Amino acid sequence: MSLVAAGSLLRVLVARAVFPDIIDALRDIADVETTPDDAISSPEALRRRMADKHGAFITGSERIDAALLDACPLLKVVSTMTVGVDHIDLAACRARGVTVTHAPDVLTETTADFGFALLLAAARRIGDAERYLRAGQWTKWSVDLFAGADVHGATLGIVGMGRIGQAIARRAVHGFGMRVLYHNRSPLQPAVAQALHATYCDLSTLLRDSHHVLLALPYSPAAYHLIGAAQLAQMRRGATLVNIARGGVVDEAALAQALHSGHLGAAGLDVFEGEPAVNPVLLSAPRLVLTPHIASSSLPTRRAMAQLAVDNLRAVLQGRAPLTPVQG
Ligand code: DGY
C-alpha cells in the first residue's frame, strides 16, 4: 500500500551528498531533495527541510529528536546509513509511528579491519614514527627506536561483542594468535564463544588482564565515560586502548592524562566526544593515533551502506517491510 494518494508524489530528503547514482533509485517513487554541497544542516534548517517530507536519508551527523519530529507530520521513515543509532531518539520515533532503519552487517568486516589497523598503528607507534621520518629526524638506527608493544600472541580485551567485536576477535585469534577476552551486556551463546575462542569476563577483569583493549560497543547513556580515570588505572601498565565505538565512551581528559603519565602505552581513537571537534588535550597527548571517524570508510562499504539505506527507504515508502529496521 502506497503512503500517498494516487497522483501525489512522495517527498524524500537526502540530508548529505551521497553517491548520486545510488540516490537516483529513489526518483521513480519520490521527489528527492538532495544536498549537493554536502553542507550539514543546522537543527532549524533540518526541521525546515524535513517539514514536508515522507522519508529522510540521513548520516550520523543529523540528529533526529522529538522537536524535529513534531515539525514533520508527514514523516514515515528515517533511514540512516550508519549502524549506530545514537543520533536518533528511537522512543520519540516510535511514539509518532516513524519507522527507523539502519545499516548493519554491510560494514562489519571493513570496520573490523580498521579497528585492527588502529590497534597495530597505536601499539607499534606507526603515526609517531612516520611523523619523525617525514620531519627529517631519522639520522641513525638505534636499538629502541619507536619500540612498541607486540600485538601477536598478546591478550586482547574486546568491550562490546556484537558483529564488529566478533569480526575483530576472528582476526585476533586466527590472524595474530591472540587470546581474546570479552565483555558484553550478555555472554555469547557457548558455541559462538567457543568458535571465536573468546572468554567472557567482567569489565575489571578484562581491563586488568588485557595487553590491548578495544571498544566496539553500541553507544547508550549507560556507556557514557565507561572508561574513565578509575578504569584506565585498572589497565596494565603499557597497555593499548582503541576506541571505534563512540567518543562518549571514553573520558578523553583522563585518557590524555594516562598517556602523559606513561601508565598507558598507546591509544588509538577514531571517534570523539564532540566530533568533528577534537578536545585539544588529545592533540598534545603522546603515543596517540587519531583518525576522523573513518572505520567503515572503504568505497565499496560506504556504497553498500548507502544502498542499504536507499533500499530501506524504498521498502517503507512502498508499504513493504524494511530490510534492516532498528529493533526495540
Ligand atoms: C556507524 O555506522 O555507526 C559508524 O560509526 C559510522 O558512523
Describe, in plain words, how this protein is organized in 3D.
It is a single chain. This protein is α/β, with parallel strands linked by helices and 328 residues long. The protein folds into 2 domains: 10-104 and 300-317, Rossmann fold (3-Layer(aba) Sandwich), CATH 3.40.50.720; 108-290, Rossmann fold. It is 35% helix and 16% strand. A 7-stranded parallel beta sheet has the order 8-7-6-9-10-11-12, with helices on both faces. A 5-stranded parallel beta sheet has the order 2-1-3-4-5. Strand 3, helix 3 (66-70) and strand 4 form a beta-alpha-beta unit. Helix 5 crosses helix 7 (163-176). The model has no long low-confidence stretch (mean pLDDT 96). It binds (2R)-2,3-dihydroxypropanoic acid. (2R)-2,3-dihydroxypropanoic acid binds next to loops.
Keywords for this structure?
binds (2R)-2,3-dihydroxypropanoic acid; 7-stranded parallel sheet; 5-stranded parallel sheet; 2 domains; about 35% helix; alpha/beta; globular; Rossmann fold; about 15% strand; about 325 residues
